[in-house]
Design goal:
This protein is an all-alpha fold. It has a single domain, classed as Leucine-rich Repeat Variant. The protein has eight helices and no strands. The longest helix has 16 residues. It is globular and about 45 Å long. The N and C termini lie far apart (about 45 Å). The relative contact order is 0.11. The model has no long low-confidence stretch (mean pLDDT about 95).
């Protein structure tokens, strides 16, 4: 399966079960940065789906270098904040020096200005508190 076929499969996926998730995960055999945005879009389309703790898709995305991964992560949160992309941002910020965290903190603060559910709002506030403590 080539990259375009994988992207098409991710874009058309209708996640309803663990088996559907395993079908997506099964195509993530090679690292290709063309898959990053479609995977973030999948997380955005299914904000309440259980992708794991954190799950194979999240581990896959986090393996990319920061210069490739971070802008797409930030864009995902700005489009549709979800528990998973906020969690990923918090994990990413934990890997940075304090001086490098400002953009991520701004994104968390921007997220609080959006119309988001209360559970996500609490999660964003927890992440902000954690990042501002350091």
């Amino acid at each position: 399966m080539n990259v375009n076929e994988i992207i098409s499969k991710i874009n058309k996926m209708n996640l309803q079960s663990e088996e559907d998730l395993q079908e997506v995960e099964s195509v993530l055999t090679e690292m290709d940065d063309a898959l990053i945005e479609p995977l973030f879009r999948l997380l955005e389309r299914y904000p309440h789906f259980n992708f794991g703790n954190p799950g194979r898709i999240i581990h896959y995305l986090e393996k990319f270098d920061n210069n490739t991964y971070a802008p797409l992560l930030y864009a995902s949160i700005r489009r549709v904040p979800t528990e998973y992309n906020i969690w990923m941002l918090n994990r990413f910020l934990n890997s940075l020096d304090t001086s490098e965290k400002s953009e991520g903190i701004v994104i968390l603060e921007e997220t609080l200005k959006k119309d988001i559910d209360e559970g996500l709002r609490e999660w964003v506030n927890e992440c902000l508190d954690e990042q501002k403590e350091e």
